[in-house]
Each structure stands twice: as structure tokens, then as C-alpha cells.
Design brief:
homodimer, 209 residues, alpha+beta, NADH Oxidase, four-stranded antiparallel sheet, 9 helices, 14% strand
């Protein structure tokens, strides 16, 4: 599908057809396309809890403003942002460091520099830890929404949930933030979409101080 | 350009051709395509400082690990995330509320519910304020990178900069976080790209606790 059609055609849909499941193959294709998103030092601090089971969706719906789409969408992705993925010893960081050295992007004796850079950019305050985890995971989540559209799927990114209660329901460790839930499925064709919401123009986006 | 080619072809390039400028029209098209990204209550907490002037780029380069691409890329976007865009009185919020009422998405007497929802989801802690601003702005930034590729441009998202010093250089008010600098231009064709970095597989991304 042409990129322009994907980005203009992507809508946050409120009504999913509960009769149309998303195949495991299609979900995998969507996730792996989205995982091509870039990330800080390639640390990829994103993970997903995949919720398909009707009872689990029902429990989640209760914690998400009781929105029917949580149960109606065949798949809900609980999107997780790992606030500790910049720490030495984290398996993804260690894998990356090895790869960077193998490709000559860094030399082995830059290890200390690398650790200090990660600490100063991503570790030294709550603000920085949160920004690191959420930024990179949101790159991935935006790519998920677009990859879904490309594959004929619809999505809805959701903020309206009780963060602590959802954390508890899925036993999510403290190192993760939950930036969003993402409903994935097929738009229910007998419902009507409202017109797209307004957007800021180029002139409204560009600022000087 | 096909979406799959865009997402697989997007690379963070380190070398930009300083002789190939980005036209104002193309930059505007890129930004307005990206601005179709979704955001929490459509609050669009993203802004850009557009840096093209050689002297300004030079000053910015000094604050960004002296990376040559900051000067070589014809455009550097200082990407800003507004941590206050959920507050009553913010012009974008007020515009959205009016539009939501006009389209029947909310009724005027849901104003108090709306304000309380914004406060509880985005306002009640530093973590939540930061996550709100950075998440939505990162949706926009990911869309910027993909829209750029679709339009034949290359990009590089940068973390390696002194946050406070860049804030000072551009007089960025405290309400904004700077999640990234984005270099935009054309890959310098006499340079070679390293192979794409590894990515986590579907099985590595999906977790249960």
C-alpha cells in the first residue's frame, strides 16, 4: 500500500468487528515491520503483552473506562517501555555493544564512554529515564499503527486506563511504563467513522522563541 | 512509495550531502504528512524549531558531541514536546474541546470530566507529564522519519546533545522537553551505509509476567 494512503488512511477506530480475528502470522508480520523503527543506541526498549483471551480482555476493559472496544477488538497489545534498557548488563544492551564492536561502530575500549553516555543521556533523572523509554517505544508504537494499516488492519491507541491497575493485572515489573494499550482488528463495517480531527498546520508547528 | 519500502528503506544516515538543500515546500509536505499522527485527545503536543542557518547549525553542533552531520545536514529539526498541552486554557486543548462538542464526540457539560481526565492521565505526576508529551511527540517524530523517506529524504534522530544547553541556545521554555534532534537531508552518495542493526524478533518482543 502506498505510504501516503497508509498515513492518510490510518484512523483510530472505535468499533472493531469481534467476528474477524487477526491471524498469528499477520500479527507477527505487523510487529516485525514495526520493529524496524530506530531507537537510542538500538536499545529497543519495547515489549508487548498480547491479549486475545475473552476473559482477560474483559478484565482489562474494566480497568480501561469500560470501553467496549477493549473486548470487541480481537487483539489488545499492552505496550511496555523499559526504563532500565540503558543499564549495563541488560541483555539487549550487551548484545548491541558486541554488535557495535563487531561492525567497528565502537571499539572495545570505548566501553566506559558508552556506559557513561547511556547514564548521562537516559539515566541521570526520572525525566530522562521516562523520556528514553517512552520515546523509543512510541517510535515502535507509531510504526505498529502504520504497519497495521498497510496490512489491512485497524488500530486504536488508548490512554484511558488505570495505569497501576493494568500493571497489577499483568504483573508488569516496575521498570516498565505502559505508554498505551493498542487495540488491533478490523473496523466494523456497519459503523460510521467521524471525519478526521483537525491538525496543526506547518505554520502552527514551527516555532521560534 | 510503497509502505514496506519506506519502513525497510529508512535508515539513520550519518552522512548528508551539504550541497543538496531541502526545499521549503518539501519540508512542509513532510511535516504535514507526519502531523496526521494520532495523539492523546488530539492534543498534538509537538512543535519544531527549524534550523537551516550555517551559524546556528555550527552552534548546535558544538552542543551535540560535535557531530559533523549537524552542520552537514541542510535542516536540523529541534523536536519539542509540550508537557503542558493537557492544561485547561492551552489553545490547542480549547480548540479541540470546541471541535469535539461540535462533532458530538463530547457534550459541553462533559467539560469537568474532560479536565479531570486530562489531569489524572497526564498531569498528576512528573512521570505522567513526561510520558504524555514524549509519547505523542515521538508518534509525530516517527511519522516525520517515514514521511521523509517517502519523499526521497534521509534523516537521523539524535540523542547525543546537551539538553540544557540546547534549551538555552534556542530559548526553549521549561514546559517543553526536547526528545530528539532530527537531521534531514540527502544521503551523501559517496559514503557507504553499514548493514542495518539487528532487531528483536516477534518472540523476543512478546512477554508475559
Amino acid at each position: 500500500m502506498d505510504f501516503k494512503d497508509v498515513i492518510t488512511g490510518r484512523r483510530s477506530v472505535n468499533f472493531f468487528d469481534p467476528q474477524k480475528p487477526v491471524s498469528d502470522d499477520l500479527l507477527k508480520e505487523m510487529v516485525e515491520l514495526a520493529a524496524l523503527a530506530p531507537s537510542s543506541f538500538n536499545l529497543q526498549p519495547w515489549s508487548l503483552v498480547v491479549v486475545k483471551d475473552a476473559e482477560r480482555k474483559k478484565s482489562l476493559q474494566k480497568l480501561a473506562w469500560d470501553q467496549p472496544k477493549v473486548s470487541e477488538a480481537p487483539v489488545i497489545l499492552v505496550v511496555l517501555a523499559d526504563r532500565s534498557a540503558w543499564r549495563p548488563g541488560h541483555p539487549v544492551l550487551e548484545h548491541n555493544f558486541e554488535e557495535m564492536v563487531a561492525y567497528g561502530r565502537l571499539t572495545a575500549d570505548q566501553r566506559q564512554w558508552f556506559e557513561e553516555a547511556c547514564m548521562s543521556l537516559y539515566g541521570e533523572s526520572i525525566e530522562k529515564q521516562q523520556a528514553f523509554a517512552v520515546k523509543n517505544t512510541a517510535f515502535f508504537a507509531m510504526a505498529l499503527m502504520l504497519a497495521a494499516k498497510h496490512l489491512g488492519l485497524d488500530t486504536h491507541p488508548m490512554d484511558g486506563f488505570d495505569h497501576q491497575a493494568v500493571r497489577k493485572l499483568f504483573n508488569v515489573p516496575d521498570q516498565y511504563w505502559i505508554p498505551l494499550l493498542l487495540a488491533v482488528g478490523y473496523f466494523k463495517s456497519d459503523e460510521k467513522l467521524l471525519p478526521p480531527k483537525w491538525r496543526k498546520s506547518f505554520e502552527q508547528i514551527v516555532v521560534e522563541f
